[in-house]
Amino acid sequence: MPTPIIYGDYVYVLGNGGIFDCYDFKTGRAIYRQRLSHRGGGFSASPVASDGKLFLSGEDGDVFVVQAGPEYQLLAENDIGERLMTTPAISDGRIYFKAEHHMFAVGNL
After folding, report:
1. How far is CA 90 from CA 7, 32, 54, 63, in A?
2. How many CB atoms sit inside 10 A of residue 29's CB?
3. What is the pTM of this model?
4. pLDDT tens across 90-108, in order?
5. 103 pairs with which residues across the strands?
6. DSSP symbol at 36
7. Using alpha carbons only, what angle is made at residue 27 by residues 23 and 32, rounded to the nearest 5 degrees?
8. Given CB 3.0 to 4.6 Å as the disulfide criterion, which of 16, 66, 71, 103 pairs with 54?
9. DSSP character at residue 84
10. pLDDT tens-digit profile of 29-60?
11. What is the torsion angle, in degrees rounded to the nearest 10, for the CA atoms of residue 77, residue 22, residue 60 and residue 85?
């Protein structure tokens, strides 16, 4: 259900089951495939990107932060504490998560 994202020279595709793929934008060549170690719920939200990072929100409330580029590098895994079903929004140095019961803003305040 998540929509692929083009960021820099790469296309990133997150499958509902947690398979995360990276492809070369110009050639379509597969760069890497990684399974995200999530708690079992799927991924409905689409990835978003900013500042050289990709943010992947899992339905269980986990947010995976991955370095953009040709090598998979997990930078952080954060638990929001509530179900996440919607795609985050990025604006003015903040990322906004609409969770099951609350709205969270993370970044410069």
Report:
1. 14, 26, 11, 14
2. 9
3. 0.93
4. 999 999 999 999 999 998 7
5. 98
6. -
7. 25
8. 66
9. B
10. 999 999 998 777 899 999 999 999 999 999 99
11. 120
